[in-house]
Design brief:
Length: 70
């Protein structure tokens, strides 16, 4: 948990990506920010519901990658 509190760059990037998506015309309800897994090890996804949702969304098609900023 200490890492989540002290190292906020990842969270800042996620929120900046959300702002970028909005600037590109995405509606707020179309954007999902996955931050429920912060501070969890990447060793396994079994206890990471945010990561599991991301994988499911990508696999089932509703997730879309944003274009690279110019």
């Amino acid at each position: 948990m200490r890492q989540v509190v002290e190292n906020i760059e990842s969270a800042n990037r996620q929120h900046a990506l959300r702002r970028r998506a909005t600037a590109l015309g995405w509606r707020d309800e179309q954007i999902v920010t996955v931050d429920s897994d912060q501070g969890e090890s990447g060793e396994s996804a079994s206890w990471r519901p945010g990561f599991q949702r991301l994988v499911a969304d990508v696999g089932m098609g509703p997730a879309v990658l944003l274009p690279k900023p110019k």
